[in-house]
Task: structure prediction
Amino acid sequence: MTEMHAQNASKKALIVYFSWSGHTQIIAQDIQKATDADIFRLETVKNYPKQYRECTNAAKQELSNNERPVLKSVPDFSKYNTVYLGWPCWWGTMPMAFFTLLEKNNLAGKTIIPFTTHEGSGFGKSLQDLKKLCPDAVILEGFSKNGNSVNDANEDVLKWLKKTGQI
Result:
């Protein structure tokens, strides 16, 4: 094996996802099964309320106050060339935990592949926010799925991964 081949073989893909209800986690796991990428669940130190309305209110307050929630831990991005980033679309963008993550970690030169779950908004403005936070990354076409239909999303995930050249 050449040195270059060994170096490329050691650079796997990473899936980083945030999931409150479990919908985004299902998509992340579908991606992981298809790509054999490493997987990392992004979690905040402070837990979100378990009730939907209370959680959405907490998320809205974080966004309104431009808060940066403290994260329990972060992955070592240096090991990866490709990073899948997945989140639920909250109030038209990604959860503020992703702002914390992306402001504190330089993903320049990486290929970012976004995915989201939502209740009708698609990506909202989260892709624009992602581009602002990661201006020197290559951002591929994302995948968006309504949260109520994630259990039947595997075929759609596979089509998207093929379309973007990931499998």
Remarks:
- The two ends are 23 Å apart (CA to CA).
- The chain has one domain: 3-161.
